[in-house]
Inverse folding.
């Protein structure tokens, strides 16, 4: 047996010994403790909505229906017709972004209409998130888009219509990743 | 010994020889000086305690600049009191906070993490399961991208170092490499993004590039040796070294592997950077090279001419700090400040420099460089490039003026 063969045999024995003692490569092998998630479990938690509309639920709402929801659930923080105060202003500000006093609202700044649905459904109203029905979220979204002059007063928002809404500031975002990050 | 250390020692020796040490503070009436024996030696002290607290004489060292949205208590931030701290680590109880809808109360026995989307096997993990996985420990800073945002304002703020720069902290984070769990789920390697979502009332969510998730992302369970504090994501948080803090989603409950960014509120309307031309930068992930002198700093008064110690912190989300230069003459000349070991990538790096103050009015500045060659810019240059309308990612040079009275103040210079 050559020296090289001897080394090879020795190495194999050592590795076998490690394996039988339960050691793993660099200690970086997981114990595989994840439990398979069922489609029903996933459906209950998967609330994210992409800009292509993926994830939007069934339901519908109009600006008129949204006005009612807004006045009851949103106005106390965001002011009448989204004018702001005490919290964020939601309406207006278009044309101000390059000025010394930019006003960033859904209408002037937000690049995707789907984000309004996603955000309202996951975290609004602030004191009672996850309390609105999907119809109510569609309706509030429609109302805010209408107040900003982006959709008409009778335009219904639903899973098909919402992703088609073009937001006025969308083309003004410059994606810097990965050019600036690693 | 490297060149900067050698020259520093020479310089320090020269300063000491030239000045002699400045005497300490004046004697207090109740100070116990020799030959008197201190009362603490004449009776046994207090007993053991289950969980220790800072000395009662340090009660004023607290988080600072605590603000929340009108009508809320948990939609805002609190800041680390940088001017009262030294070394590279931040005590967990003083680590800055940024919450979007308060700190949730989560029983780890009931908490679950779901991994799904473009994976072969969607999986649910309990916290107890996660605790059985191999872990890594890494010392890293975490910085809110809104740190120092008041410096975008045209006039220098009347605020302390902690109040302006205290949305940065540094901890040892221990947890499971995210890569392990993604591989267990059979992640589609070609899928470029992962949505991360918290179990707080904001269901705070961000889209994370797969490259970062598979590189150095951690599911952190421990901070500075103990389980995470509630305000830092208990029982489990995502941790993305060097990247803007809000992406390290706290109270992590869900990871969805997706083919494109979800464009959540916090990556579109919130954490984007409006430039003076009306365009906005999006996905500005790494926190840029930055430093600040924490002592002396705004609100302090130097006790007189003579030798003082300058102390500060530097950090870069893109790598390791290689150099911190300090100017004590309003930016005319700069000297390398010695860096305090260990100097780690994406960690706070402490620098200290003895300074003999001649009693004349002056301005102190620090300027950091990282191992990518990036140099912290002067504030005026940074503002000229980015304008005053942005809120995030300010990393210009911080200046403190020193008056002949010894009073130290925030200044734009």
């Amino acid at each position: 047996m050559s020296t090289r063969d001897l080394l090879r045999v020795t190495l194999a024995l050592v590795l076998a010994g490690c394996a039988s003692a339960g050691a793993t490569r660099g200690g970086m092998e997981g114990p595989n403790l994840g439990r398979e998630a069922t489609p029903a479990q996933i459906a209950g938690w998967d609330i994210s909505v992409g800009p292509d509309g993926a994830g939007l639920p069934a339901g519908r709402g109009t600006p008129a229906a949204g006005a009612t929801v807004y006045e009851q659930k949103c106005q106390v923080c965001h002011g009448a017709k989204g004018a702001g105060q005490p919290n964020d202003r939601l309406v207006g500000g278009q044309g101000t972004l390059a000025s010394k006093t930019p006003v960033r609202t859904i209408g002037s700044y937000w690049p995707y209409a789907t984000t309004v649905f996603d955000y309202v459904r996951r975290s609004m109203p602030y004191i009672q998130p996850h309390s609105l029905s999907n119809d109510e979220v569609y309706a509030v979204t429609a109302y805010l888009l209408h107040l900003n002059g982006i959709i008409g007063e009778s335009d219904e928002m639903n899973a098909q219509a919402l992703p088609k809404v073009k937001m006025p500031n969308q083309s003004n975002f410059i994606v810097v990743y990965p050019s600036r990050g690693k | 010994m490297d060149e900067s250390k050698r020259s520093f020692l020479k310089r320090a020796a020269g300063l000491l020889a030239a000045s002699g040490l400045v005497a300490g503070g004046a004697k207090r009436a109740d100070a116990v000086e020799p030959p008197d024996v201190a009362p603490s030696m004449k009776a046994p002290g207090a007993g053991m305690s289950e969980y220790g607290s800072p000395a009662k004489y340090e009660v004023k060292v607290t988080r600072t600049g605590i603000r929340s949205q009108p009508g809320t208590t948990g939609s805002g931030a609190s800041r680390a009191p940088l001017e009262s701290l030294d070394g590279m680590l931040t005590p967990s109880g003083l680590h800055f906070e940024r919450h979007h809808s308060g700190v949730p109360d989560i029983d780890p026995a009931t908490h679950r993490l779901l991994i799904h989307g473009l994976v072969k096997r969607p999986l649910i993990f309990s916290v107890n399961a996660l605790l059985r996985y191999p872990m890594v420990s890494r010392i890293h800073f975490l910085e809110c991208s809104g740190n120092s945002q008041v410096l975008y304002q045209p006039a220098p703020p009347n605020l302390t170092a902690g109040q302006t720069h205290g949305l940065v902290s540094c901890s040892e984070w221990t947890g499971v490499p995210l890569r392990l769990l993604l591989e267990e789920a059979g992640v589609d390697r070609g899928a470029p993004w992962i949505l991360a979502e918290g179990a707080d009332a904001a269901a705070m969510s961000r889209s994370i590039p797969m490259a970062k998730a598979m590189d150095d992302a951690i599911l952190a369970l421990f901070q500075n040796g103990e389980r995470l504090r509630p305000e830092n994501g208990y029982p489990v948080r995502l941790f993305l070294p060097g990247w803007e803090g809000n992406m390290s989603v706290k109270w992590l409950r869900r990871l969805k592997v997706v083919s494109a960014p979800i464009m959540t509120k916090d990556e579109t309307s919130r954490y984007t950077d409006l430039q003076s031309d009306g365009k906005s930068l999006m996905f500005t992930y790494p926190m840029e090279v930055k430093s600040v002198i924490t002592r002396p700093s705004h609100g302090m008064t130097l006790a007189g001419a003579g030798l003082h110690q300058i102390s500060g912190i530097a950090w870069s989300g893109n790598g390791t700090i290689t150099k911190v230069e300090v100017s004590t003459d309003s930016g005319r000349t700069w000297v390398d400040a010695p860096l305090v070991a260990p100097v780690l990538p994406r960690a706070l790096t402490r620098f200290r420099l003895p300074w003999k103050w001649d009693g004349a009015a002056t301005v102190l500045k620090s300027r950091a460089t990282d191992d990518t060659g990036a140099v912290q810019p002067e504030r005026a240059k940074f503002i000229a490039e980015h304008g005053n309308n942005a809120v995030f990612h300010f990393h210009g040079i911080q200046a403190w003026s020193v008056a002949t009275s010894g009073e130290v103040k925030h200044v734009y210079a």
